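Researcher: Sequence of Amino acid transporter LysE follows. Predict its structure.
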Amino acid sequence: MALHVWLVYTLAALGLSLSPGPNSLLALTHGALHGRRRTLYTLFGGSAGFLLVIALSMFGIGALLKASLVWLTVLKWLGGAYLVWLGVQVWRAPPIQLARPAGAAQARGALLFRQGFLAAATNPKGILFFAAFLPQFVDPARNVAVQFAVMAGTFLLIEFLTELVLASLAQRITGWLARVGRSFNRACGALFAAIGILLPLRG
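Model: Prediction complete. Tokens:
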């Protein structure tokens, strides 16, 4: 990938990782209940789930590229529209509420890993989201497989570190999120919408 494209992608991925979602909520919950060390199982499970979802999304994008470059442009604009719609939904979402999951006190590493994996892999919006987000940065003139590998690795690293910070600070920020949750959701929703509008216009 071109360096400037990767930098834009990295900033967008960081912003999206900070937005509320099933895995960030799970990281907060497990961080508050089990501590940072045990929540690492949850984070590794989430990374495995995201890797699966990204791979499936990339497979579909790669198939479109082989069919016609026109489809990539179409996918970029459809993806941008979806991200704007997603931004509206996040804007209107209620504040984050943390609930104590059943059996949390007896949770083992395997269970935490499985919960993290399922939160990422079974989210019905996951494949659609990555199918909308990743094509914005694909350069058909370059090696597509390498670009996908770079984007996947970058996102997984950012997502893991972001969730690790959330888990580490869970006890301190859950009260803050309860107080400013609606404003936080609106800021994240505006970010989604801005990404959806600006990225397809990059050319």
